[in-house]
Write a structure and sequence with these properties.
Pfam families: DUF3712. This is 6250_t:CDS:1. By secondary structure, this protein is α+β, with helices and mostly antiparallel strands. It contains 4 helices and 18 strands. It is elongated, with a radius of gyration of 31 Å.
Length: 299
């Protein structure tokens, strides 16, 4: 009779199955531990160094404490993920809060996410700061507003809440409506001007009226008022019809003579802007004091 040695315990089927199960469980626990360590960094990477490029920004006064706002743009993130704002985004300029907006969630793919026509309410924190922001957008080439909030980020199948976000919101400016043009006609002391505002900025603003001082050789020769409502549209030219009276004096006479000859360089300076809605003082502050250099041609 031949006796065979018993199979070692570590080669038994029961042991191999049990050991495989143990390795599987251990591997799963290790993955969970690694994920718990790595996931916070992955989630924070979605909003870390993020920025918004605003292509369209429409503002309209509603009350002394709020304005309607519409935002279109692109969110540039650190990695793919979904972002949900759990607190309103507070906008500030030079560390002064302007107001806050509750933004919709953003789906980020390939490090970019769309912000499409989000029609919201801006809760105004400081109307003076809001007027200053509007003025800055209309006079500078680019404006950067800081947005702060708290978000929940969903990445690789897991949500992480309570992540602080501080991101720049970049807005194209109008640069004093550079390259704007105008035509004019003068009858006795009456002057009519058709101004074509070139607006490369992201801002849209509707006005019931707007007023300008017309200057030639550093002398104000007329105060002009719009003859109809004005809608300044983002990334588009806007035609403004103006009328007024020429002042008497050598500067006005020289202006008339040069205009009769074909064209004359001048400066139009906004002196007021009126918008529908309560609490529109920030609109007036925003549009006042803009110097628009134009060459005025004869109609």
């Amino acid at each position: 009779m031949i006796h065979t040695s018993p199979r070692p315990w570590y080669k038994s089927k029961r042991f191999l199955i049990g050991f495989s199960f143990f390795v599987f469980i251990l591997g799963g626990i290790t993955c969970l531990i690694l994920l718990a360590l790595v996931h916070p960094a992955l989630a924070e990477d979605v909003v870390k160094n993020s920025s918004y490029s605003i292509s369209k920004l429409s503002l309209s006064p509603v009350s002394t404490k709020s304005a309607s706002i519409s935002i279109t743009g692109e969110f540039n993130a650190g990695r793919t993920g979904d972002i949900t704002f759990t607190k309103p985004v507070v906008f500030s300029v030079d560390q002064v809060d302007v107001g806050s907006v509750e933004l919709d969630p953003i789906n980020v793919e390939n490090d970019k996410g769309a912000v499409d026509d989000q029609d919201k309410t801006l809760d105004i924190a400081n109307s003076t700061a809001l007027g200053g922001l509007v003025h800055k957008i209309l006079t500078d080439k680019e404006v950067e507003v800081t947005g702060t909030s708290v978000v929940t980020v969903y990445v690789i199948g897991i949500s992480r809440a309570g992540i602080g976000m501080t991101s720049p919101f970049k807005i194209n400016g109008a640069d004093n409506f550079a390259s704007s043009t105008a035509t004019a006609s003068v009858t006795n002391t009456n002057i009519t001007v058709t101004l074509t505002l070139q607006n490369p900025s992201s801002l849209s603003l509707s006005l019931t009226s707007i007023s300008f001082d017309l200057s030639y050789n550093s002398a104000v020769i007329s105060s002009l008022n719009s003859t109809s409502p004005v809608s300044i549209s983002a990334n588009s030219p806007t035609t403004v019809s103006l009328a007024g009276n020429l002042a008497s004096g050598a500067a006005a006479d020289d202006f008339k003579a040069k205009l009769a000859g074909g064209s004359v360089p001048a400066v139009l300076t906004t002196t007021s802007g009126v918008a529908d809605g309560k609490g529109a003082d920030w609109v007036n502050a925003g549009v006042t004091g803009i110097n628009i250099a134009v060459t005025i041609s004869k109609k």
